[in-house]
Specification:
The protein is α/β, with parallel strands linked by helices. 47% of the residues lie in helices and 19% in strands. It folds into two domains: 275 residues, Glycogen Phosphorylase B (Rossmann fold, 3-Layer(aba) Sandwich), CATH 3.40.50.2000; 209 residues, Rossmann fold (3-Layer(aba) Sandwich). The chain is built from 18 helices and 18 strands. 49% of the residues are buried.
């Protein structure tokens, strides 16, 4: 499946309607730096997955303009043409006040919904003020959508948990607009979700969608069960749909993916080669060791402390590996306004210092913890250098890092250690699957990865690459819009 194939499918499904993508995060951020303005591409799985779709069909992407120079880079209407040298689509920025961002993003979205949906034993915090701000910001996004759509037919493709009320707001204003939403994180079971104080309004918002998509069927079943017991509605389990006020919302599973071919090309580019040289200089004496690589936002769902402890256990059980292995952890600071994230950052520093003190020699340090916002090419460079990529999320809707690693390994080598609690584990069965809560099991998997012969590594990687090649991001997008076309034909019939 290619970008051209996807463009044909979306054009057919939309029947001439505008395509409008809506998300909190924008595909590029303009930031002020000494001497001018720089353009950053966020290290985001959402951006990786969605940009090829909106680029393929020349649509409009509406997102929160969060960069310090975003207003300077945009026109008077908040618009930017992307990519700048060869425009394919329009970015329409929505401006939020500091208070709105605090209540909507750092508050309701990330101290309430994020821990609630991931249930990794971090208690969610609920605030009526945050909920009211969340509602206000969702209305701001509605206004931007309606302005962009004008009087024309439109298909609106909404992303994630930041905008759960938006589908209903759009439908109340324009019932004719087709609304699709992809929920990128897990959906919990009913017993977990029932503690959310604003459950009925949030579920009503999501049932404004014509099509609501999750990564796997398990989340679809959880959602339908939540709706069935949590709100006045009729749930049709046979056809995976729910009716609210007579309006059907179809609930489907579409495992998200990446642009496998493009990542492969980028991984072989001169920019990545330069970054590899830079990493080798930074690693110094560690350069000759086999590299275990992690690349994550610093988030309590990613299992970074568990990963570090497993590496510590492996070194304690197999002291002969000292100086022969190094764990390189690329970690992007994230949501540091939130107390749980600040505590995690401090604890990681202490843990790294403790493990390094226990095992290091005069010339070798077991863990290199590189805390920074590494750009796309730097992350690809780390993947290319890795003997083993370690993805140990405690709970993850999909995890595109795993698929990006596999896509980057055009050399056909490398090992993936992958948490069984990621959506990706359902597709990448030839990874070494682990329970990230079981530190000893992870340590054993790391040691097995170190010992694995080249032939076995290549056989596993070949199968994983075939899987990601077949189910790339364009196929993901195509399946969503083909289902949109089918649901529309059902309603017309």
């Amino acid at each position: 499946m290619t970008a051209n194939d996807l463009a044909e499918i979306v054009s057919r499904a939309s029947a001439g309607a505008k395509l409008i993508v809506v998300s909190n995060r924008e595909p590029v951020v303009h930031e002020r730096v000494e001497g001018g303005v720089t353009v950053l591409r966020p290290a985001s799985g959402l951006v990786t997955a969605i940009e090829p779709i909106v680029r393929a069909v020349g649509g409009t992407w509406i997102a929160h303009g969060s960069g310090s120079a975003d207003r300077v880079a945009a026109d008077e209407r908040g618009r930017v043409l992307l990519p700048p040298n060869d425009p394919k689509y329009t970015l329409q920025r929505v401006w939020l006040t500091r208070g709105e961002e605090d209540g909507y993003y750092y508050g309701l979205a990330n101290t309430a919904l994020w821990p609630l949906c991931h249930h990794v034993y971090v208690r969610p915090h609920f605030s009526r003020r945050d909920w009211e701000t969340y509602r206000t910001v969702n209305r701001k996004f509605r206004d931007a959508v309606l302005e962009e759509a004008g009087e024309d037919p439109a298909i609106v493709f909404i992303q994630d948990y930041h905008l759960a009320l938006l589908p209903r707001f759009i439908k109340e204003a324009r019932p004719d607009i087709r609304v699709i939403q992809f929920w990128h994180i897990p959906w919990p079971n009913r017993e977990t979700f029932r503690i959310f104080p604003y459950a009925e309004e949030l579920l009503d918002g999501l049932l404004g969608n014509d099509l609501l998509a999750f990564h796997i069927k398990y989340y679809c079943r959880n959602f339908l069960g939540t709706v069935d017991r949590g709100i006045e509605s009729r749930v049709d389990y046979e056809h995976f749909r729910a009716f609210r006020g007579g309006h059907p919302t179809y609930v489907r599973a579409f495992p998200i993916s990446v642009d496998h071919a493009q990542i492969g090309r980028d991984a072989e580019s001169p920019s990545v080669t330069q970054r590899i040289d830079g990493f080798r200089k930074e690693l110094g004496e560690n350069n000759g060791a086999r590299l275990f690589v992690g690349a994550d936002r610093i988030d309590y769902t990613k299992g970074i402390p568990e990963r570090l402890r497993a590496f510590d256990v492996m070194l304690s059980c197999h002291p002969e590996l000292r100086t022969k292995v190094t764990l390189v952890q690329l970690s992007a600071p994230s949501r540091t306004h939130i107390e749980a994230y600040r505590i995690l950052n401090d604890n990681l520093d202490d843990l790294v210092d403790e493990i390094n003190w226990r095992h290091q020699t005069d010339t070798w340090m077991p863990i290199r913890f590189l805390r920074a916002h590494h750009d796309y090419h730097a992350v690809l460079a780390a993947y290319r250098m890795a003997h083993v990529a370690v993805v140990t999320s405690l709970h993850d809707g999909m995890n595109l890092v795993a698929k990006e690693f596999v896509s980057s390994r055009t050399d056909g080598d490398g090992i993936l250690i992958l948490s069984k609690y990621t959506g990706a584990a359902r597709e990448l069965a030839d990874a070494l699957l682990v329970n990230p809560y079981d530190i000893d099991q992870m340590a054993d998997a790391m040691y097995s990865a170190y010992l694995m012969p080249e032939a076995a590594r290549r056989q596993r990687m070949e199968k994983m690459r075939a899987q990601v090649t077949k189910n790339n991001v364009y196929r993901w997008g195509a399946r969503i819009f083909e289902e949109t076309e089918r649901t529309l034909s059902r309603e017309v019939a």
